[in-house]
Amino acid sequence: KVLDASTLSFGTRVRWFAICFVAGIVCSILGTALLWLPKGIKLFAVFYTLGNIAALASTCFLMGPLKQLKTMFEPKRLIATVVMLLFLVLTLCAVFWWNKKGLAMLFCILQFLAMTWYSLSYIPFARDAVIKCFTSCLG
Fold this sequence. Notes:
Main location: membrane
Strand content: under 5%
Number of strands: 0
Protein name: Vesicle transport protein
Number of domains: 1
Structural class: mainly alpha
Subcellular location: Membrane
InterPro entries: Vesicle_transpt_Got1/SFT2 (IPR007305), Vesicle_transpt_SFT2 (IPR011691)
Helix content: over 70%
Pfam families: Got1
Number of helices: 6
Radius of gyration: 17 Å
Distance between the termini: 52 Å
């Protein structure tokens, strides 16, 4: 029952959703501010990645972790989920193991794009609208 959202009251779930979501935003903004310090790329990559993880985890409070995982890995989200998680890990690998600042920045940008594409999958027809917008702009 612990992994089910129904064990918490609706108010508690919304409160923890908001706390995690705001913490995610704060981490991402803090990471961006720290980017300009010497060796700030590591802090940026860590805080930006933690911010995305906190924002992703925030929805666990609304629907419960098991339902969250099930919806994340539905066929229509599978590729977006795997790519998003891959770039979260690659960002941290780039700064801690490979020590490649440019690659870390690229992975952060790709992390943002993957997270955006993943998030759009929850809004009906949002992905279609984005694709139509880009195709009309390009051709």
